[in-house]
Amino acid sequence: MIYALAVHGAPYSSNAAEHAIGFAEALLACGHQIERVFFFHEGVYHSLNSHVPPQTRYNVNLARRWQSLHSGGIELAVCIASGIKRGVVNETEQERYDLPSDTLSKTFELVGLGQLIGAIATADRYVEFPA
Fold first, then answer.
1. pTM of the prediction?
2. Average pLDDT of span 71-87
């Protein structure tokens, strides 16, 4: 089966990402495909290039786990509207808004909402991970 996933929760403030990553890893282990992971609302904070994971006994580095999924060929798509209003910008948007630097991790891509709709249309299942 082909899945499309959406993450709405910010890193380390909800379990949305950990559940999404665990679900994605389980899907891949079972031979399923993931069309795209779409980050929406507060979920766009996962794509910041300045993450420092909390120093806890669990040592959960979400950025490293997203990079691993991306290295496996999974697109990590960030809603451009949600991203820009939260300070997540690529080089193009940085220049457009005359900002001091880009903040989007190279693992992620800013896209329009059409990418989510396209992924839902292509996928057999769509699963959201709310905040």
1. 0.93
2. 97
